[in-house]
Amino acid sequence: MKFKYFILTFFIAIISCTQVNIQQPKELSISEGFKNSIGFYNAKPTFSWKLPVSEQIKSQFAYQILVASSKELLPDNADLWNSKKQKSTQSTFVKYQGKALKSRQKVYWQVRYWNQDEKASDWSETNSFELGLLNNSDWQAQWTGLDTAKDSIKGVRKFLMHRPQYLRKGFELASDVVSARLYITAKGVFDVHLNGKDVSDDVMTPGWTPYNHRIETLTYDATELLQVGKNVVAVELASGWHSGRISRGSALYENFASPKILCQLEVVLKDGSKQTIVSDESWRGTTNGPIRLASVYDGEVYDANFEIPNWNTAAFDDSNWKSVEVEAIAKNVKLAPKRHLTVKNQTVLKDVEIVSVKENSAIFNLKQNMVGVPKVKVPMKKGDTLKIRFSEMLLKDNTFYTKNYRSAKSTDYYIAAKDGVIEYTPKFTFHGFQFLELSGYDKNAKPDASWVQGIAQHSNFEKKGTFTSSHNKLNQLQSNIIWGLRDNFFDIPTDCPQRDERLGWTGDAQVIAPTSLFNYDVHAFWTAWLQSLRENQSEHKDGMVPFIVPDVLQTKSGSSGWGDAAVIIPWDIYNTTGDITVLEESYESAKKWVGYYQSKVKKQPYLPKMHSFADWLQPYPSKPGKLGNRGDTPKDLIHAAFFAHSAHLVSKIANTLGKTDDAKKYKDLYKAVANAFENEFFDENGKFKQERQTQTSYLLGIYFDLFKPETKLKAQKYLLEEIKNADYHLGTGFLGTPILPKVLDDMGEIDLMYKILFKETYPSWFYSINQGATTMWERWNSFSKADGYNPQPMNSLNHYAYGAIGQWMYERIAGLSSLAPGYQKIRIAPIPNAEFLTSASASVKTPYGKASSSWKIENDSFKLDVIIPPNTTALVSIPTTNSNDVEVNGVKISKNQIIDQKEDKLVIEVSAGTYNINSKFESKK
Ligand code: BGC
């Protein structure tokens, strides 16, 4: 009996042991990080998941994905795709290979994995996505709106302005609603309501694309907003980018054509029938609503006397509104579901201070240069106009510095319809500001800080990384960098958010991309903009990439260092995310840009002659004023350097995509250009031939690997000399600055890089902080307490380019970087410098989970805490000369754990897990 019992328990134990499933995968997403989205843009998605953090789970041995057309079919009857068990460590961006998916289709999916011991996990939770309208032929709606061009209202510089429109359509539903989708977009910007309720909290939709190629569409779940009987769909519509002066009357957008909406509401009713309400000639509209004017650059005018109570509810009678005009959908403009997240309100700045109060006007300080709109709550008298002005900083006498807005009026007005406290937030504009001036409020009222709040807006990506250290100014620099990013990621990456520009400058974008990818989840944001870049590039047979995207300037020539965004950014995205799709999508475009350089080579082999903004805004240029903006590094040198670099990257991309012929061809091209570069611009001693030496000429040659090894060593010496001549200050503009830390790092000159980074005087990063900056500035000397503002009106106080140092702060100060695409292999290699810092730490949400590196110096010891996510490995570099006193998780390391040892560091390899590393700190002195 006893024996039988023993046998039984033995078998039960074996069975339960083999059946103990490990934890399910989590954080499922599709393509560039979308979760359970509706109106999804891509019928060929990729799938990603993360392994849970657990002692049992180091890596993935295999996976299986199931895709089905209904939830009930999972996991046993996946009718769209069963990947079967795939022996692979890949847990990110696995391509869908099932049945073709179509517009509106709702798709459910699950995944499981086997861990390193080949144990299967439970199935994940079921995730879903629903496709948007993928083809123009899915639309029955027509472009609809009033002809506002005929009013001929002229604004700044006589540009045509359109009165914002209020459009509506009532309809009846015969029975309860089972489901409803609202597909909508605009030539302009819109806000949509159903039965008086806001459909979403999106801002300035549909956003900005090259509208002559593609207009993005939004999909909203309208199920809960509809009812049996009478309903209404109501839309507010303004010029936005499409019909505003920011598009400069671009002939491409039909010369200030009146804004229009395209709207299609598809309803499935309980009785099984389907009803579709579309924008067409049956809609009614008026321009006699409260938003009188709205412009991206110039602000909004709101007149409460024009408010139309209940206009967006079903009960409203619109019989005295006008009938609308319609326009058919053009075949050559693609209507495509938005491929990245919309702009939304993100943070509300409430810590406001009153700076000064004069007769009936008051200045408020929001203590942070921000982008978005104000929320004002102000006592007013009927008929009075509240004027709201903005500025980034103040003049010495506490009045506004607005010269740098140039022609952008950036002013909002509110006209009161009655006595009392009004509340107002503009809808169809945005401003870049820290200070706000109110005038025209109730004279008897005493201004109060609570009158004003700042609503910061940006594209709705998540925070991805953190960086902090023991040094206040370095932390302020990190803060300025991330504010600069948020403020300038307003649907597209802009150069600046406040003046009459706010354009997608390609050079600025390529410079900041790596730092942005550390701090925010901007994968989809960048790939969406790259699509716009390719569309604008397609207008040029020679492969030219315009220097702004969307190209409302209708650029005639490309600029070296700017058009290279077509090559550099896809490569950066791939390396950060591991998503090969971006390389596939961008490959032809990248090759064409290199072809553009080739087409510009005339007399001298491999040396193009073209346009360049050069090392934009280098400090101490030899030419005065505006002429000095391009710095002293000759543009011919810059063309050749970027030509070689882009050819080199194309060769690397070709390799990654398995295109070996191209890989060789472009590598040869890079070598040939590099050779020409060295011969033309450097002498046999590795010295830049021009009399006026520049840091950037050396930096480009070294970082882009354009010198023979022996010349490189010599050039490095000259670079160091140049830096010394500048008394360890920066001598670089937009192009040189981001690569300075990489070059010095590579040369082992880390302490020198620290020295430059921690400089307090001009030109340096801390200089602007010492002058009160809360964002990155366009110029190293945009402002100084002693001399005031840079006299040039091109003087943005919110320009992210110089924030490119952020990458090095993550990678080397905190010591966290990706060694293999998408952080599948991680490098932890902090370089502490006790002269400036006693601690630093960074974390990043990698595609595999959170990774972090955090160090501090305590007495004589160096403590390094590391987190390595599942399914990755890491090389950890410990700065010590002596392996005897290194402990990992309390245990002394053994010699065979060390995979590399140099004089001042040793390297160990670790798998997923948490590590506390202790070593003796050796001061360099
Ligand atoms: C923009 C820049 C841009 C530059 C190129 C400026 O007006 O603000 O950031 O890269 O022009 O010339």
TrEMBL record:
Residues 176-340 form the Bacterial alpha-L-rhamnosidase N-terminal domain. Keywords: Hydrolase. Residues 463-813 form the Alpha-L-rhamnosidase six-hairpin glycosidase domain. This is alpha-L-rhamnosidase. It comes from the Bacteria. It catalyses: Hydrolysis of terminal non-reducing alpha-L-rhamnose residues in alpha-L-rhamnosides. It comes from Polaribacter aquimarinus. It holds the Pfam family Bac_rhamnosid_C. GO terms for molecular function: alpha-L-rhamnosidase activity. GO terms for biological process: carbohydrate metabolic process. Residues 815-888 form the Alpha-L-rhamnosidase C-terminal domain. Its EC number is 3.2.1.40. Residues 357-455 form the Alpha-L-rhamnosidase concanavalin-like domain. PROSITE patterns: PROKAR_LIPOPROTEIN. The keyword Hydrolase applies.
